[in-house]
Every structure is written in C-alpha cells, then in structure tokens.
Design brief:
Glutaredoxin, 7 strands, 6 helices, 184 residues
C-alpha cells in the first residue's frame, strides 16, 4: 500500500512539473499553410475595419503575432518588426499583431495607447474576438504569445511563449529568423 501511495504522489506532483517545463507548442506547424481570418484593426490605415491580412499578403513574406496580453518584451518584438518592415520594403515584408480577447470594444483603446507609448508605427494591431484565436491556427491556451513567420503561404518558423517566457533574448531569437523569409 505504501508503494502505491508513493507512486501516486510521484505521478501527481512530479509529472505535472515536467509537463510545465516542456516547451510551449502553439499555432500552425512549420510547413503548414496559414489560414485566412479577419479581425478588428485598432491601429494603422485600416483602423476600425474587419481585415484579413492573410488574404492581402499572398506570396509575400509575413510575420503574424498572436498575443493575449501586452508587455514590454512584446513591444520590443513589435518595434523590431517595425524596423524590419522598413528595412525590407523591397521584399514587401508584412507584419501584424492579433490580440485575442472576448471584449474588442474595451481592448481597442488600450491597444491604441500601448502603440503610442511604445512608438509602434507600421505594424498594425487588432483584436480577434475569441480568446482561443482563429480555430484553424490551433493556438495553445497556455501560449501568451505565438509568432509565425511565413512566405509563399508556408510557415517557416514558429515560436510560442507562455506568460513571462518572452524575454529580450527570445525576442532576438525571433528577429534572427527573419532572413528565412526575406533573404539575406
């Protein structure tokens, strides 16, 4: 009986800890095709409109960021994408951030303020009105940020971060992957 209790204790306490240490997996897999979805744009020229950037991107290189919360590391990533868009105008690099929320009307002004606070200029921010995200993307519930880099309608890199895992070194890891979609 005692061995059984020790085993049950091990399974209940050690196994969940190992699962939490596993890397976060979220979003369309590398090699997969990003599906179309529309969301409410909060910043940029399409502000106030339902937009499908996937549809408009076609074969061009793009970065999709799905986020559940605003943070300074996320702002650093978006500022890096802002710079990358300017640096790769010839390649027509696209990038946008889709926040996942059940309350788009209250999140919209917060995104505008966050964008101004961090001087985000060219990367549109918007809201998809479902915390689960677009169903075709299979975003993990524990993923606070999921980043997909794709070109020619094929995902080339996929990053997923739980709350607190997106740090400056991880932001740099994501930005270092941009040559895979825009070239050297």
């Amino acid at each position: 009986m005692r061995r059984f209790l020790v085993f049950v204790s091990f399974v209940c306490f050690v196994v969940p800890i190992r699962a939490a240490d596993a890397p976060c997996v979220s979003g369309t897999v590398v090699g997969g095709k990003p599906g179309p979805y529309t969301f409410h744009v909060a910043t940029g020229p399409e502000r106030g409109q339902l937009t499908c950037y996937i549809c408009a991107t076609e074969e061009r290189p793009a970065v999709i960021v799905f986020a559940r919360s605003m943070s300074d590391p996320l702002a650093k990533l978006v500022k890096g994408l802002d710079k990358a868009k300017a640096d790769h105008k010839v390649k027509q690099l696209r990038a946008w951030v889709t926040f996942l929320s059940d309350d788009q009307p209250s999140l919209d002004p917060k995104l505008v303020a966050w964008s101004k606070k961090h001087a985000i200029r060219d990367v549109p921010l918007g809201v998809f009105e479902d915390v689960g995200g677009p169903p075709a993307y299979k975003l993990a519930r524990d993923a606070d940020v999921t980043v997909l880099l794709y070109v020619k309608q094929k995902v080339v890199s996929n990053f997923a971060f739980r709350a607190g895992e997106l740090t400056e070194p991880r932001v740099n890891d994501v930005l270092k992957e941009l040559p895979k979609i825009v070239g050297p």
